[in-house]
Amino acid sequence: MSRKLIAANWKMNGSLAQCRELLPPLASVARDSLPLVVCPPACYLPTVAALAADSALQVGAQDAAQHDAGAYTGEMSAAMLRELGCQYAIVGHSERRHGLGETDDMVAAKAAACLRHGLTPIICIGETQAQYEAGQTADVVERQVKAVLARVVAEDLVKTVFAYEPVWAIGTGLAATPEQAQAVHASIRALLTQAGGGEAAKRVPVLYGGSVKAGNAASLFAMPDIDGALVGGASLVAAEMVAIYQAG
Ligand code: PEP
């Protein structure tokens, strides 16, 4: 069974016109054997879900609330996102961890909320530039993964996706080398093995994110523990995104 997956994170970009422009080329190449997930801003989810219908394209949100319902102004629950046509939700993106103060435990709670409502969480982890320079990558990644393991039981772990996104590589044009990313991915896979046994390690996709483009995708995907990509900037250019997907 393939554990490959490619996801597009539009961040706070796009428009209705761009949804209509970007979706058809992706819908025409997407196939069931390699999931292609588009994560637009929440307001465009219904439009994107409608444009993805009748194709193998899948739809994801960029965040999900940790709570199921209640007085949480501005939040959207996993159940609501399901109703809008999502199968996935990104949680713990570094722009939310570092820009909006999301903690490891909040991210883990969001992943658990997704799983309660049948959404696959794409759980982002990764070290900052300062942590990288201080040689703390392995410790940071272990702490972030273990926070998730504290809230997600082994039988649900197989329904998750992890995305290793070194913060210093996001939106900088400076991707990790395939070898650098592979070393971290292998350590994530070892943590999954410890927590969920062989099944989790075999089935959970571990994506790489951080300045992935058509030009570097194939060399990253050639690594044994890199199962695909979470693509930011390049996902806003249809031809780039199609080329990245076709390298998968
Ligand atoms: C991201 O936003 O998850 C990301 C990886 O961005 P970029 O591809 O632009 O570095």
TrEMBL record:
GO terms for cellular component: cytosol. This is Triosephosphate isomerase. Homodimer. Keywords: Cytoplasm, Gluconeogenesis, Glycolysis, Isomerase. The active site is at H93, E165. Substrate binds at N9, W10, K11, G171, S211, G232, G233. Coiled coil: none annotated. Pathway: Carbohydrate metabolism; erythritol degradation; Carbohydrate degradation; glycolysis; D-glyceraldehyde 3-phosphate from glycerone phosphate: step 1/1; Carbohydrate biosynthesis; gluconeogenesis. Its EC number is 5.3.1.1. It is found in: Cytoplasm. Belongs to the triosephosphate isomerase family. CDD domains: TIM (cd00311). Its main location: cytoplasm. One of its GO terms (molecular function) is triose-phosphate isomerase activity. It catalyses: D-glyceraldehyde 3-phosphate = dihydroxyacetone phosphate. Involved in the gluconeogenesis. Catalyzes stereospecifically the conversion of dihydroxyacetone phosphate (DHAP) to D-glyceraldehyde-3-phosphate (G3P). GO terms for biological process: gluconeogenesis; glyceraldehyde-3-phosphate biosynthetic process; glycerol catabolic process; glycolytic process.
